[in-house]
Write a structure and sequence with these properties.
This is Phenylacetate--CoA ligase. With 426 residues, the chain is an alpha/beta fold. It contains 13 helices and 21 strands. The longest helix is centred in the N-terminal third of the chain and has 22 residues, at 9-30. The chain has helices spanning 2-6, 9-30, 32-40, 51-54, 62-67, 100-117, 136-148, 160-170, 179-191, 220-228, 339-348, 379-393, 404-411, and strands spanning 82-85, 95-98, 124-127, 151-154, 174-177, 203-206, 232-239, 244-248, 255-256, 262-267, 280-286, 297-303, 305-306, 318-319, 324-325, 330-332, 335-337, 356-361, 367-374, 398-402, 422-424. It is 34% helix and 22% strand. The strands form 5 sheets. The chain has a 9-stranded mixed sheet, with helices on both faces. The chain has a 4-stranded antiparallel sheet with strand order 10-11-12-15, covered by helices on one side. A 4-stranded mixed sheet has the order 20-19-18-21, with helices on both faces. The chain has a domain at 329-424: GMP Synthetase, Chain A, domain 3, CATH 3.30.300. The chain is globular. Bound molecules: zinc ion. Zinc ion binds next to loops. Zinc ion is lined by residues 249, 251, 256, 310, 312, 314.
């Protein structure tokens, strides 16, 4: 619904409210989980007449979805076509299902997402993510591009050689990729003397990882890609639970919402709305889906929003990149920061080739941060680093000089498969 983005803010709100009401009644009729929740909280959904009423409805947590997974299913089992799971980054993966209506909704969602980016009929798009492995998004990209009438190259995940070979063969204009995989591809090109100065690729549609800061400028990851490869980067934000993508338009100032498919709230710790530009947790209600709709689901993703019209002419709400997970928030001397804020500063600091960040809680139950850096860094450089922390974060973590080997050991504990730059010891 491209026109929806360009409707007035008031019209968008009205349409969204109608969808929200419809979804509430649907859940009350079909969802064992929400029927139980409404009964326990003595909620009569027909009496929810405004957003003020709505925001008193209980929050759905990830634990709810994990522990009562089957109770969220609103349709007969045999109606489910596609069975998928969440990635389970912070816990056990959760099962979700899609019926015919949901698959059509997913197609529309991705179609709109590609349209926001500017992908047109006849453009060739290379999908470097898996289309199977119980992954919802891969299938969504394929179906959205089919609907759009684009050409599709399904290379799947990994295999840099296959990726570059496909780019040469099929001349895609766009590439859908996890940004850190693009870094790997670029490294592979360098190591194998692949000339990437004249590729057909004009833009990458980045998924799974943030590429921008809160002020919309590229973060370290984004910069690393564009320094080596002259292409445009589009940020997207999505999750399996949401079954909806938030996507950047051509002006790259936040990820546009699709208000007919998802209702968003950005809340503080007390469940109150934060103001535009303030960091809060994203709480979502999925709209127009049938198998497992979620009502006021707390995503754990901390971000900011803006609801002023975008310079692209669209009036839909925009979300920033995710600043961190709610559980990872650090309250340092009264200021809320995320590991990512510290990692960004350290990664950009010249001459620092390794570090590790540790979060602890002191006797007074206050968060403490120690940044361990190699002892060959001069005290003068440490002073500069302290100044940068002060100006960027308003607070300074403790900086400790230790042997480089100790840092390496802390970063790669045996029980972990991936290096750990942030160690949460709270
Ligand atoms: Zn825009």
């Amino acid at each position: 619904m491209s026109n929806l983005h360009r409707s007035s803010i008031e019209e968008i709100k009205q349409l969204q409210w109608l969808q929200l009401k419809k979804q509430l009644i649907y859940l009350d009729l079909h969802s064992p989980f929400y029927q139980d929740k409404f009964r326990k909280s003595v909620t009569d959904v027909t009496k929810i007449l405004s957003y003020d009423d709505f925001r008193h409805l209980p929050i759905t947590t990830k634990e709810d979805l994990q522990e009562h997974n089957e109770d969220f299913i609103c349709v007969p089992r045999e109606e489910i076509i596609d069975h998928v799971t969440t990635s389970g980054t912070l816990g056990i993966p959760v099962s979700l299902g899609l019926n015919e209506a949901d698959l059509q909704r997913l197609t529309r969602n991705e179609l709109e997402s590609f349209k926001l980016i500017g992908v047109e009929k006849g453009d060739v798009v290379q999908i470097t993510t898996t289309l199977d492995r119980r992954f919802m998004a891969g299938l969504a990209y394929f179906m959205g591009l089919r609907e759009l009438g684009a050409g599709i190259v399904r290379t799947g995940s990994g295999l840099p050689q296959l990726q570059w070979d496909s780019i040469e063969r099929f001349r895609p204009k766009y590439i859908v990729a996890v940004p850190s995989f693009l870094v790997k591809m670029l490294q592979y090109a360098k190591d194998n003397n692949i000339d990437i100065s004249e590729t057909s690729v004009k833009a990458a549609i980045c998924i799974g990882e943030p590429i921008r800061e809160l002020d919309y400028s590229l973060n370290t990851l984004g910069k690393r890609i564009t320094e080596d490869w002259n292409i445009d980067l589009f940020s997207t934000y999505a999750s399996t639970e949401m079954a909806t993508a938030f996507t950047e338009c051509e002006v790259h100032m936040g990820n546009h919402s699709q208000p007919d498919l998802i209702f968003t709230e950005i809340l503080d710790d007390d469940g109150r709305h934060v103001k535009p530009g303030e960091i809060g947790e994203l709480v979502i209600t999925t709209l127009q889906n049938e198998t497992m709709p979620l009502l006021r689901f707390a995503t754990g993703d901390m971000l900011t929003f803006t609801d002023s019209p975008c310079t692209c002419g669209r009036n839909t709400q925009r979300l920033s990149s995710v600043m961190g997970r709610k559980q990872q928030m650090i309250k340092l001397k009264g200021t809320s920061i995320y590991p990512q804020n510290i990692i960004e500063i350290l990664t950009n600091f010249k001459g620092l080739d390794t570090f590790v960040i540790e979060a602890r809680r002191n006797d007074l139950e206050m968060d403490m941060i120690t940044v361990k850096v190699p002892d060959n860094v001069s005290l003068e450089r440490i002073d500069t680093l302290t100044e940068i922390f002060k100006s960027r974060l308003q607070v300074t973590p403790d900086i400790e000089l230790v042997k480089k080997e100790e840092i390496e050991l802390l970063r790669s504990p045996e029980e972990k498969r991936k290096p750990e730059v942030f160690r949460d010891l709270r």
